[in-house]
Amino acid sequence: MNSLGPTLLAIDDEPGILALVERFARTLQFNVVCHDGASGVLAEIDELRPDVVLVDLQMPEINGLEVLRAIRDVDPECAVVLMTAHASVDTAIEAVKLGALDYLTKPLDFDRLRGLLTTVLKGIERREALLEIDADVARRFEFHGTIGRSAAMQDLFDSIRRLAPHVRTLLITGETGTGKELVARAFQQLGPRRQGRFLTVNCSAVVDALFESELFGHQRGAFTGATETKVGLFEHADGGTLFLDEVGELPLSVQPKLLRAVEYGDVQRVGSLETRHVDVRVIAATSRDLRAEGAAGRFRSDLYFRLNVLEIHLPPLRDRREDIPLLTAAFVRENAARLQRPLTGVTTAAERALQESQWPGNIRELRNVLERACLLSEARILGEREVRQAMRIGSSAAGALEHASAATEPPTVGDSLSSAQRGQIDRVLRQARGNKTEAARLLGISRRSLYRWLDRLGHAEPKASQPGH
Amino acid sequence: MADATRSFDRWLHDVRNQLSIILGFSEILLQELEGDDARRHDLQEIHDAAERAMGAMGRVPQKEDESGR
Ligand SMILES: Nc1ncnc2c1ncn2[C@@H]1O[C@H](COP(=O)(O)OP(=O)(O)OP(=O)(O)O)[C@@H](O)[C@H]1O
Ligand SMILES: [Mg+2]
């Protein structure tokens, strides 16, 4: 919808009152959306994410208190003001109990209404000022793309700064998504090799049989299929840095050769007797406990000790929660720039939700959650609901749906999917401009299960365009 | 009897609603007009009349007859 300025939703069965509220609120720079009855309004609130709702108490189909209750359910952060031509103490008390911001009698007292709307505006401004500060702080506490102001991260930046110019080998450990690759790049940036190449090999993605040739190259004819002589990554990286990601996945058979390459810079192409000398800085990363792998015989201890000359450990995000606001600010701004929307950050309640999560996927997970939340949101400031929704799609919901759609029997149309989920999928699809692969990625589900989901929602989607299952 | 009360209440509600629209718009316009605008006087008359009508609504006899006295 409109992304500039706060949004006010007015609900009244009397068009004249709607026109009046609209006229007045516009003078205070609100975007105003009017609704002449309560039916369908809840779905609209979901879409619109208004900052404030003015709702009439007496409407034919529905009581304003019911609307208030429903809004509080859908979006507890939305300010709700009730209006009535017929004040009663009982309803006023009930309204306040249900969390209404105020209760106005008609004729509307414009000074009072102005006061209320100004309070709402001020609250938004205050929050935006705070978010601006977070973003500033994030910029100040950024170290070569890595953000962190926690003591752990500050110490880590210090070590990198001091050691990067001198260290030839480095082992970076930490759970998935903690920023191992970022740190590897920072190391390279600060070291003497910043001009040299930075090559990455993801050890979990290489077929065992091809590892040796990948790292060290091969001679033409060395094995079936070796039709050309190939230069390995070590030779390519000569004078630069080789990043061995997921080094714990490296097959045992290649490990002695790797040790020689790391220790002496000696490499030998497969099928060649000639030893070549290279000057390569090796940075290895793993989310496994290599010492335990060594004890279990899955990783050579000598290689481990050689890589481990210097070890940098990245703590999981749940152990440095004070970094969450800064990371959040940075990621929201990044999405704002990419989506070209004036998103400024998250509400206080949303921030609390982010603070409470365990983040098994660490910073990568936080980043994905915020990316999804940015797509789900229509507002300038992401609310608790979008954030929780995004966290749910990321974890249990996606898993459950993935699971449900993996069942062999065709899904029943219209069963257990909530309207919120429908809305979510629709919105993500729209954001992805109908590109289902992109939409599936954003939802954190497979393309295939997105199709089943759509089927289940009874989406008007020509069957012919579906890929064969 | 209860039906009559209900429809009377609804009527009261509707009239107040309409009056508050007249009042509201005339207040907004009064605020926006330049101080020396010639139409200010007319507008003020509309506004005041609506206010008086609203006041009169408040004095509508509130069915003591029904309370059984
Ligand atoms: N401190 C940080 N500041 C900003 N962004 C970060 C930070 N740490 C991680 N990220 C971001 O989180 C994502 C994951 O980081 P990265 O790929 O470095 O993690 P990893 O430890 O290598 O994970 P894995 O073990 O799964 O490969 C990236 O998008 C990265 O930019
Ligand atoms: Mg990685």
What does this structure look like?
The complex is a heterodimer of chains A (469) and B (69). With 469 residues, chain A is an alpha/beta fold. Chain A folds into 3 domains: 7-108, 3-Layer(aba) Sandwich (Rossmann fold); 169-316, P-loop containing nucleotide triphosphate hydrolases (Rossmann fold), CATH 3.40.50.300; 320-457, Helicase, Ruva Protein, domain 3. Helix content of chain A is 48%, strand content 14%. Chain A contains 19 helices and 18 strands. Chain A has helices spanning 15-27, 41-48, 64-74, 89-97, 110-140, 151-163, 180-190, 211-216, 233-236, 255-264, 290-295, 301-307, 324-339, 348-356, 362-376, 384-406, 419-431, 436-443, 447-456, and strands at 7-11, 31-35, 52-56, 79-84, 102-105, 142-143, 146-147, 169-174, 198-202, 217-218, 230-231, 241-245, 266-267, 276-277, 281-286, 311-314, 345-346, 381-382. In chain A, the strands form 6 sheets. A 5-stranded parallel beta sheet of chain A has the order 2-1-3-4-5, sandwiched between helices. A 5-stranded parallel beta sheet of chain A has the order 9-12-15-8-16. Chain A has a two-stranded antiparallel ribbon with strand order 6-7. With 69 residues, chain B is mainly alpha-helical. Chain B has one domain. Chain B is 72% helix and 0% strand. Chain B has helices at residues 2-32, 40-58. Chain B is elongated, with a radius of gyration of 17 Å. Residues 65-69 of chain B have low confidence and may be disordered. The interface between A and B is medium-sized, with 15 and 15 residues. The complex binds adenosine-5'-triphosphate (ATP) and magnesium ion (MG).
